[in-house]
Amino acid sequence: MELNQGDDLSPKPGKTVLIIGIVLIFAFQLIFGRLLVLARLDSLTTLVLSRFIYISLVGLLYIYARKAEHQDFLLWDEHYPVEFYFKWVILLYLLTFAAQIVSAIPIWFGWHDNTAVLMKWMRIIVSRYWLLLFCAITAGITEELIFRGYLLTRLQQLFKNTYMPVIISATLFSVLHFSYFNLREIIFTFLIGIITGVHYQRYRNIHVLIIMHFFVDFVAFLLARYALLHHIKMPGMGLF
What we know:
Layout: H1 15-39, H2 43-69, H3 82-103, H4 105-108, H5 116-125, H6 129-158, H7 163-176, H8 183-203, H9 206-229
Helix pairs in contact: 1-2, 1-6, 2-6, 3-8, 3-9, 6-7, 6-8, 6-9, 7-8
GO molecular function: metallopeptidase activity
Keywords: Hydrolase, Membrane, Metalloprotease, Protease, Transmembrane, Transmembrane helix
Transmembrane segments: 17-37, 44-65, 85-109, 129-151, 163-181, 209-228
């Protein structure tokens, strides 16, 4: 494996610069997310613009990495044969089912989860095929680049402990989904953050995570669309 910028033998940016980059992720989303709310746009427009906020954030972090940190946006780069992608997309996809089972435990013990907000956005997303595909693609690409490609690697530069970057990045990724006010979604996204974080630390390949992320959301959207069109009660399903 070739060492890239961000490995232990490479010069690292100062802690302040790294922390500012991490804060930038959430400050950017908070500011522009609030502006969307104040704009009082219709739900469809708000949803589409929210995806462009993530796309813009990736661009901003890329510029920040090059100009302020003086290092690449993606610090880890390792190439694998095609069979690696098939193997791990399938295995990681199966692990998402395990994460969904664990996230449902509070419901089995009588917890009444709030699904109103999640279902509201789900109905909008699956109402149009182009929107369904657009959301699955942009979520897979932008969220993996931001939370695994950027955030996890910067935390890796801040902490000597191997586990802390994964735990912190998974927690912050889960916080991102707090707006659904759904405990199962929060648990599910935290577990997914752990799974993808450990995988990225071990194999340093962001592409397989992007592909898996896309397929999880895409299949969930298709199932939700089918259920809504045929008036079938949907079981709880995690999105990330």
